[in-house]
Amino acid sequence: MEDFLAVLNHRGAGSADGLPLPQHLKEARIESTWTAGVLGATSLTLFLLQEQDALSGRREVFVLLHGEGRASRPLRDLALHLRAYLKTRGIASLLRIDPRYGLLCGSALEPLDPSVQWDRPTVYAALYLTDDPASPSLAVMEYVPITLQGTFREIFLKYNGVEPARSGILASAFRRFAGGKPPSSSSAGKLSYGMVATLAAFLAREGGKEARLSLIFKDLSPLDARTCLLDPDRATYHPSGNDRFFASLGELA
Question: Any idea what the Cα angle at residue 127 is, between residues 126 and 128, rounded to 5°?
Answer without folding.
Answer: 115
